[in-house]
Design a protein that fits this description.
By secondary structure, the protein is an alpha+beta fold. It has 15 helices and 16 strands. Helices cover 39% and strands 20% of the residues. Helix 13 packs antiparallel against helix 14. The two termini are 55 Å apart. The chain binds adenosine-5'-diphosphate, magnesium ion and zinc ion.
């Protein structure tokens, strides 16, 4: 029997506040190193934290959008450990009484729909950043100390790398729709720890390892595949998986051991005496509930019922707010919306990943340089058969280079589908005459030769023949009578 993987994710998300969680320093990405610091976030002795109400509100809204119970009473604990990026030598976090528990998030993959349990969401502060510099050795930037974070912990419910990626995309969609965070993996405002074990289906959970701070969709997926292979090989060789923290190396595509995993006892958690209990009243909760906008699932349902899209396609289109907005704007100007949806998740997504030169695996809005109007127009041209799928691709690539009217472009480059039966007959005739060997092979029963003949005939029209009409003309001549 083969092994299955069991995955639980811990995701850290930076909240979109103006200021840090326990001081008035700006919460800004990309500032001069150590420009946004004060005695509180530098951890100077005697400095006292003051809790940022906006961080609480955003964390509550994240919990609501992820179907959690929001506790009316929660509190902060100190997590004690030493590392140079944490000058206080403890992180203010929530351990005993987290803000949110017991939620879920539905994901769609090509294989269908699944519900992923969310164990808890807690508030905490971020640590600083170590900068490894060729010339000067390791430097420290404390700007990130005290940036508000939520940590979202899932149940061990995920079973494939694809599901893990689908979960992260869905999480990003929900949190960006809600305005809780900008969730930019490349800037570290969404970071993911992967916990993974393997087992034979039906067996109890195996021993897990943890891979920390993966910062792209691609590295999450590759780390999962690599670690699954490694654990399977260890077990097959009669060995045991040890519980530990491992590092994933982008370059080699392998994971390697870093340290034995620490237990919660190692952290000497205790309630932070500097911060009062967090108390939420009914009025605050209903005010925040009212601010939760229409979430991706709602839009997905609407696309399914209004346009007859599959759950998977609709999920893809709602995976980012800009994309859903873009789709709706194009759909309003388009005669065949399902064709538009397929063009988007097919050829347009392919173009976006071609243009994602840093290979972040993110479909960034800035990469989408074709206007909704041009795409709608191209989609209708293709749906009506006025251009075929291969010329549609050519035109799309041209639109990405420079947004323009696809009708005019097709006109100027003579790309409209050739459907005239007389012209198609002439092309078919010529293809057969120029490739007698293929004709012979076809007549000898090698039906694969038809494909080669189609390719040849298509080439004679620079790819713009109506494929069905052309094939009919070829067959008429290959099988006379
Ligand atoms: P810690 O805080 O020490 O990392 P938790 O118990 O909070 O530990 O679990 C962290 C994550 O590990 C959760 O997402 C959980 O679903 C996942 N997890 C726990 N046990 C396993 C396992 N055997 N295999 C895979 N994932 C697991
Ligand atoms: Mg962990
Ligand atoms: Zn500060």
């Amino acid at each position: 029997m083969t092994y299955e993987m069991v995955i639980g994710l811990e995701t850290h998300v930076e909240l979109r506040t103006q200021t840090k969680i326990f001081c008035a320093c700006p919460n800004a990405y990309g500032a001069q190193p150590n420009a946004c610091v004060c005695p509180v976030c530098m951890g100077l002795p005697g400095a006292l934290p003051v809790f940022n109400r906006r961080a609480l509100e955003l964390a509550v809204m994240a919990g609501m959008a992820l179907n959690c119970r929001i506790h009316r009473h929660s509190r902060f604990d100190r997590k004690n450990y030493f590392y140079p990026d944490l000058p206080k030598a403890y992180q203010i976090s929530q351990f005993y009484h987290p803000l949110c528990e017991g939620g879920w998030l539905d994901i769609q993959t090509a294989a269908g729909s699944r519900r992923v349990g969310i164990t808890r969401i807690h508030l905490e502060e971020d640590a600083g950043k170590l900068v490894h510099d060729e010339k000067n050795g390791t430097l420290i930037d404390l700007n990130r100390c005290g940036v508000p974070l939520i940590e979202i912990v899932t149940e061990p419910d995920l079973r494939t790398a694809e599901e893990a990626a689908a979960y992260l995309r869905k999480l990003r969609a929900v949190l960006t729709y809600t305005g809780v965070s900008d969730c930019r993996m490349n800037e570290g405002s969404l970071r993911c720890d992967v916990n993974l074990s393997v087992r034979k289906p039906g067996q109890p959970l195996g021993v897990r390892t943890e891979m920390k701070n993966l910062n792209s969709f691609q590295s999450v997926q590759r780390a999962i595949e690599a670690e699954f292979r490694r654990q399977t090989e260890v077990l097959e060789a009669g060995g045991e998986v040890v519980q530990e923290t491992r590092r994933f190396d982008q370059r080699t595509g392998r994971t390697s051991g870093m340290r034995r995993k620490e237990n919660s006892a190692d952290y000497r958690y205790f309630p932070d005496p500097d911060l009062p209990e967090i108390v939420l009243d009914d009025e605050t909760l209903s005010r925040l509930q009212a601010q939760i906008p229409a979430l991706p699932d709602q839009r997905r349902e609407r696309y399914m019922s209004a346009y007859g899209l599959s759950a998977y396609t609709a999920e893809q289109l709602t995976s980012q707010r800009w994309l859903a907005d873009y789709f709706e704007e194009a759909a309003a100007q388009c005669a065949d919306v399902p064709a538009l949806a397929n063009l988007l998740v097919g050829e347009v997504f392919a173009q976006l990943s071609l243009r994602d030169t840093q290979k972040t695996g993110e479909r960034d809005a800035s990469l989408m340089t074709v206007s909704p109007r041009s795409l709608a127009c191209l989609s209708d041209m293709a749906a009506q058969g006025r251009v075929n799928s291969s010329t549609a691709k050519t035109i799309l690539a041209a639109l990405f280079e420079r947004d323009q009217d696809p009708e005019a472009y097709a006109q100027a480059h003579d790309l409209f589908t050739l459907t005239d039966p007389v012209a198609l007959a002439r092309v078919a005739q010529r293809a057969l005459e120029e490739a007698p060997a293929l004709v012979e092979r076809y007549r000898a029963g090698k039906t694969g030769a038809l494909k080669a003949l189609m390719g040849k005939a298509m080439g004679l029209t620079r790819g713009r023949a109506d494929p069905e009409g052309l094939q009919a003309e070829l067959l008429k001549r290959l099988n006379p009578g």
